[in-house]
Amino acid sequence: MKQNRRPAPFNVVPSDTEGITWALPEGAIVRLGKGIDLSSGGPKLALPPGGKYLAVQTSIGLWWYEMSSRSPIALWETERGMISATDFSQNGEWIAIANYDGVVKVMDVQSGKCLAQMKRTEEHNIYWYINFSPDRKWIATANWHGIVEVLDVHRGVCLAEMDRGEREVESADISQLEFSPNGQYIAAIGDNPKVYSTRDDGLVNPDQVHIWDPETGVPIVKFAGSRFTFSADSRLVAGTAPDESGNDTDRVDRCISVWDIAKAKRIAHFAAHSDWVDAITFSPCSNFLASSSRDESLRVWDVAKGVQKTAYTDFQTPRIAPFYSTEGELFAIVDGQDTIEVWNMERREKIEIPELHPRSIDAAWFREFPQLALADMRADTTPNKKTETGNIHTFSAIRESACFPDPVMFLPNGKTLATRGYRNGIVLWDVESKQVRETLLKDTRITSFTVLPSGNMLAAYSQDNNVKVWDAEKPDASIAEFTETDQVRLIWTIAFAPTGDLLAVGSREGPIHLWDFIRKEHLKPLIGHTEHIWSVCFSPDGKRLVSGSDDRIARLWDIESGEEIATLPLDEPRTLMEIAFSPCGNLIAGGLFGELRLWNADTLTTLFAIPQPQSQNPYALAFSSCGKYLASGTWWEKGMEKMAIRLWDVANGENIATLWGHPTDIQSLAFSPDSTLLATGGFDCSILLWDMKPFIGS
Hints:
The protein is mostly beta strands. The strands form 15 sheets. Strands 1-58-57-56 form a four-stranded antiparallel beta sheet, with no helix packed on it. A four-stranded antiparallel beta sheet has the order 2-3-4-5, with no helix packed on it. A four-stranded antiparallel beta sheet has the order 6-7-8-9, with no helix packed on it.
């Protein structure tokens, strides 16, 4: 049954169709970026039956979109944000939402009313999966420790807890969680360190499918496998499985096992695929099973006879997803390089539908609800209708601002804000239009970048002890590459000198490595720290460098000689987590555990040390361009809902303003060149712009 329940329009600003001013914290002007799904990186769609609306779980909250317009129509759960899992009830009337605090809410989609709220008391009980039972009386959850729980929606209690036993590491290792169609069983895939295969003498370390009674938690069946599917009558479960004749140390799930659940007995095993099986599905009658593999084949199996019925081996891509129509016809979604096709496999004919892009909303809807999507798309397609290829709907409305704002930097003209892309590139935002202008180095992984006084941008990437440096305006080739020995383990702590010729990279062992990428020389390392380097920062003239380490000593270095000048005075040993030089280089600010400290950069005397509230350590710092003000941002600790951004008067250490913004760690701060704007980048992968004029004047 279709549902066309329009979600309650929470936090909508009618004049803002993009959502950049929705649910802003007090004092913020705009939000750049819509957040990410914290469990997988990109936005995760929750698609109700019918496909008229969709929900996107993010670190900001739950975004609702209208499928037809691809426009946001509501933003829910912004008080905390940090959405970790969502699921719709079978009829689409309710949605279950879990967040990082371990709170699960069941909400009515149309009214937005909270029908039930549950919170388990265990520490770090974050839910990565939630799944409604077919009758929506129960919710199955998988938490941070890899434990499956079944919660009673109406009573708000835990009915059963399924712990898979002793494991080397307890982690969020559940990769699939589903009720059977009749709600009689609950199944999950977990990673167990010691699991015996179907052979008597075989010991392997695969994923394993577990099936339990959801009301009691009693185990029923378990077998090695990395994915599963129930038959429509809930009598059978099929799962991918390792090849019984293969090598346990080189395990590939290329086979399929079928189990009778009630009898806890394997009734069929199919082994014709030559590579990983990626998708399996039962026919509506439960007599046949279709599977697709990375060997670019789709095969149909007769379950009762235990034999292959049909094989389709002429695909040119491994991305094949079979599904049956409600009438029992076999179809396949074929993901190509640029488009998606849908085929009726039994008739060997391509279905005429509007062209789909693999990353489009329609494609995601098709993969989630293929029967409904096919029916709707075929109804909207006439035999003589021309397919439009120029209007491909991608996730651009949702994913255009996928960034990791560490660092955040204004260009010297103040009209452009730069930040790191979530996976690749440097994203440039137009400050006036509040839109992405372009992405530099969009195909390149970036660890850090800087904006020089000239406006030129330099970028660097460090991995496996290899460091590359690019001119961000020239993506075709790096301008320098450096390689360290295997004994050195370089980390993400990277700083460019403002002079545009040097790069400092911290290591896990303590030394700080310096490269002159103009002369392509490895300079004398800075030797003194003995443990993990957390922070490095050059002075504005590039002649000095300050560093903080797990050895709990803050050191000041002379770059030309490569020698330590002094250690910064501390009342007791502490780790310097963040450092900032003032624009004229006369002050050094440090963020420490429980304290914000300011030193005179010439005499190294402490100007003031300000204790910070418990669990609000200042790990992001930035001076205003005039040098009179300092901004600090905190990291998240358990129990905190919004993070503090504090503005300090450098002359007297007075806290002149406190802003409450991101739902998790503040990663980076930057003042505009005229100091009238403050950009704050959070671990939620969004940037907030704040008006500073009420606090520091124009």
